[in-house]
């Protein structure tokens, strides 16, 4: 196992956009600052999408200009297309990283962004050099990398071909999303072993959902293959709006607790993270489902297991 991994907290973007409630801007800012104080050094906080499509994130500019985080915290925004990138770059000094995305499956990509994969990829290949030219880090995510709810199994070769094109366009990081929680650990281990072999020099990030309860098992499989970069969402917030009913990302507190108990450092203060998760639970007015939030973490330091508060 690696001694340390990096975790990007995506709840303020990927989580909030799928909640039925619109979280007030001041509360978003407070929660982002709480997460930064918990030790996350990479946060995905906003998206430059049309407000009529995702009204929950229509305050991206206010959030970016209002948030106050330590200087070593990297803020990332998502852009869906060239128009979104143009708007984002007008506020270039408020963030450090831009993520662009495409689905590996044709049906999901058309339902998600109303474009064929080829058209999306061509646009991303134009966008990546613009992002790099603005002095920003460029990340790309391949969604439905492990399965599509409409098409079923996705050929890993297709996923890696898309990833290779994005790497050639200049992306610094490539994320692979189990967008609706269809992956299994054997599949994950095999895929990332091949991805690490065929994409040298590129940071590879694993993004899992917990729809079938296999999210943490998949994270361990990716770790075993050599992955040291993960994405998760506090409180297990989020999901995929395409199709309805897909459950959230793996919970950051569950991932942090598991890794730390395994001896893999995350740099995240679990107590501070649980404080943020409880705060968003109160804000939403309903219980959240992450296991550590409900039952408390396990302390193995004394040679036996016990629950801590």
TrEMBL record:
Q: Name one Pfam family in it.
A: HMGL-like
InterPro entries (UniProt xref): Aldolase_TIM (IPR013785), HMGL (IPR043594), PYR_CT (IPR000891)
Q: Where is the Pyruvate carboxyltransferase domain?
A: 5-274
Entries under Gene3D superfamilies matching the protein: Aldolase class I (3.20.20.70)
Looking at the record's lineage, which domain of life comes first?
Bacteria
| Single biological process term from Gene Ontology | L-leucine catabolic process
Q: State the UniProt keywords alphabetically.
A: Lyase, Metal-binding
Q: Name one GO molecular function term.
A: metal ion binding
Sequence similarity: Belongs to the HMG-CoA lyase family.
What's the name of the protein?
Hydroxymethylglutaryl-CoA lyase
The organism named in the record is Baekduia soli
């Amino acid at each position: 196992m690696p001694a340390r991994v990096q975790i990007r907290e995506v709840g303020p973007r990927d989580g909030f956009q799928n909640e039925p409630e619109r979280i007030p801007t001041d509360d978003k800012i407070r929660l982002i600052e709480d997460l930064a104080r918990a030790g996350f050094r990479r946060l995905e906080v906003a998206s430059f999408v049309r407000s009529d499509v995702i009204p929950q994130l229509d305050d991206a500019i206010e959030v970016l200009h209002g948030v106050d985080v330590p200087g070593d915290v990297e803020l990332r925004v998502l852009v869906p297309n060239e128009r979104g990138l143009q708007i984002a770059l007008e506020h270039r000094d408020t963030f450090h990283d831009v993520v662009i995305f495409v689905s590996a499956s044709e049906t999901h990509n058309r339902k998600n962004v109303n474009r064929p994969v080829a058209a999306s990829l061509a646009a991303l290949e134009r966008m990546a050099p613009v992002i790099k030219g603005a002095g920003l880090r460029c990340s790309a995510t391949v969604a439905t990398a492990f399965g599509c709810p409409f098409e079923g199994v996705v050929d890993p070769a297709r996923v890696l071909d898309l990833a290779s094109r994005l790497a050639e366009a200049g992306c610094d990081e490539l994320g692979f999303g189990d967008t609706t929680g269809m992956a299994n650990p054997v599949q994950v281990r095999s895929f990332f072993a091949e991805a690490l072999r065929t994409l040298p020099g590129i940071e590879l990030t694993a993004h899992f959902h917990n729809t079938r309860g296999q999210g943490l098992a998949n994270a361990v499989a990716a770790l075993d293959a050599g992955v040291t970069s993960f994405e998760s969402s506090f409180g297990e917030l989020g999901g995929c709006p395409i199709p309805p009913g897909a459950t959230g990302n793996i919970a950051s507190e569950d991932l942090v607790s598991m890794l730390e108990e395994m001896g893999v450092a995350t740099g995240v203060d679990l107590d501070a993270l649980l404080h943020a998760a409880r705060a968003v639970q109160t804000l939403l007015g309903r219980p959240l489902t992450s296991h550590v939030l409900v039952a408390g973490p396990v302390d193995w330091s004394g040679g036996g297991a016990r629950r801590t508060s």
